[in-house]
Design brief:
- The structure is a single chain.
- The protein is an all-alpha fold and 460 residues long.
- Helix 5 runs parallel beside helix 7 and helix 8 packs antiparallel against helix 9.
- The protein is globular and about 75 Å long.
- It contains 18 helices and three strands.
- Helices cover 64% and strands 2% of the residues.
- Among the domains are: 56 residues, no CATH class; 53 residues, no CATH class.
- Keywords: Membrane, Transmembrane, Transmembrane helix, Transport.
- Belongs to the major facilitator superfamily. Proton-dependent oligopeptide transporter (POT/PTR) (TC 2.A.17) family.
- It is a multi-pass membrane protein.
- It is found in: Membrane.
Length: 460
């Protein structure tokens, strides 16, 4: 993966089209393109000595991704280990909570033809605790991100979160040990505490690991490079960042897939204590890798959270726009000038709030951010059904004849999660627009759930 990496065929076609456009522009006699040179750019220690593209280069040369720094791979490996540990334990929660301890078993293992279980609390309790766990690990990142932005920075927040999550993993092991697992009330109490503690660690970790991996690549400007073949290309930082995240999510999916498949069989043939201990052992790699690379990671100091100021701006923009008439309120809140009253240029002298330390452009960015968030308003509905689907599929698989195959694996919920790494690029290539891909995926999921519901009615 060293060296310049080839760009996507879409960008190759785009470069060819731009080259033809430039040739047509040149043949028309126009010669108003601007030549860029190193002298046009300030020395910053990151882009020094690079050749920057002219307007002609930007239109005619193929664009490629730059070399990915190795410290980004270290962070991706940390994420792999964390996802292995999280999904490896989470995939056996349903059977641990719902099913009873098999007769004569002290570990919860069901064996080839038996059903693994521990607490015997039924499907309603297992679905409820699984749903709470999903809610918890998605809410805590809000606080983890705020602490990182205002107090500790991303790297320190990640290190502390790993330590907290490790405590939760240990508690999870304790809840499944022989001698503890036989006492369902004590095991349940320990298990719930483990979920809460692990959620705190996972939330602080997940909020900061993705931004940290992107921070490892510092270049932000286009520059020209010559490949071994002699071809001159434009190295695009945007493509490089996209490539970093592509590998980052590849590591995530590898960790999650291996963790889920292996732990379902550990649960079935050995017991829950092994299904919780092995992910903990893999998770112990996180602090080791973080310590080894502590002097290699690019870190950004805390610079303050934009969340508080964004909410202040939003609240300020709403002043005077609410009415007892809902139609009038709707029109006021969606008026074209809604954000104008919250811009700094709207205030003069001491009338400007002390917290307003930004300019009008920053308010425009907040506007775009809130507009983008409207897409996510449908996500709670999606995740509510999706999480119910996963938990209930495992419960349904427990009633089937699986002939030695783990029930959690037979539920196909493992594959359904990981198949997104394959389907997402395909859908982007087919539809182009993200909203079209989201719509198609949601419709497909709805049809699938209806089909599964029919199967459940037939088998019940």
């Amino acid at each position: 993966m060293a060296g310049l990496q080839s760009d996507d065929p879409v960008y190759q076609g785009y470069a060819e089209a731009k080259r033809a456009e430039f040739e047509l522009h040149k043949d028309s006699g126009s010669d108003d393109h601007v030549v860029s040179s190193a002298g046009d750019h300030e020395l910053d220690g990151i882009h020094d000595g690079l050749e920057f593209p002219t307007e002609e280069d930007k239109l005619t040369l193929r664009r490629v991704a730059d070399t990915i720094p190795w410290n980004a791979y270290l962070i991706a490996f940390v994420e792999l280990a964390e996802r292995f540990s999280y999904y490896g334990t989470q995939v056996v929660y349903t059977n641990f909570i719902q099913q009873r301890l098999p007769p004569g078993s002290r570990t919860g293992a069901g064996g080839r033809d038996g059903q693994s279980g521990a607490l015997g609390m039924g499907q309603r309790a297992s679905t409820g605790l699984n749903t709470f766990n999903q809610f918890w690990v998605y809410v805590i990142p809000l606080f983890g991100a705020y602490i990182a932005d205002t107090r500790w920075g991303r790297f320190k927040t990640i290190c502390v979160s790993v330590g907290v999550a490790l405590v939760g993993h240990v508690l999870l092991i304790v809840s499944s040990l022989p001698g503890v697992i036989e006492h369902s009330h004590g095991a349940l109490a320990c298990f719930i505490v483990a979920l809460i503690v692990m959620g705190l660690g996972t939330g602080g970790f997940k909020a900061n690991i993705s931004p940290l991996v992107a921070e490892q690549y510092k270049r932000t400007k286009l520059f020209v490079a010559t490949r071994k073949s002699g071809e001159r290309v434009v190295v695009d930082p945007t493509l490089t960042t996209a490539r970093i995240y592509m590998y980052f999510y590849l590591f995530i999916n590898i960790g999650a897939l291996v963790g889920q498949i292996s732990m379902t069989y550990s649960e079935k043939y050995v017991g829950f204590y092994l299904a919780y201990t092995l992910p903990t052992a893999v998770f112990l790699l996180c602090p080791i890798v973080l310590f080894i690379g502590r002097n290699k990671y690019a870190r950004s100091p805390p610079s303050g959270s934009v969340l508080a100021n964004s909410l202040r701006v939003w609240r300020l923009a709403q002043k005077g726009r609410w009415s007892w008439n809902p139609v009038k309120t709707w029109r006021n809140l969606y008026a074209d000038d809604f954000w104008d009253s919250a811009k700094p240029s709207h205030f003069r002298g001491e009338a400007r709030p002390k917290w307003m330390t930004f300019d009008d452009n920053w308010v425009d960015e907040v506007k775009r951010g809130f507009k983008a968030c409207s897409v996510f308003l449908w996500y709670p509905v999606y995740w509510l059904t999706y999480n119910q689907l996963n938990s209930n599929l495992t419960s349904q698989a427990a009633t089937m004849v699986v002939n030695g195959v783990s029930a959690a694996w037979a539920s196909t919920s493992v594959l359904s999660r990981r198949s997104r790494s394959v389907s997402s690029p395909v859908l982007r290539r087919w539809f182009g627009q993200p909203l079209c891909s989201i719509t198609f995926t949601s419709a497909t999921l709805a049809v699938t759930m209806l089909r599964l519901a029919r199967m459940r009615l037939v088998t019940s």
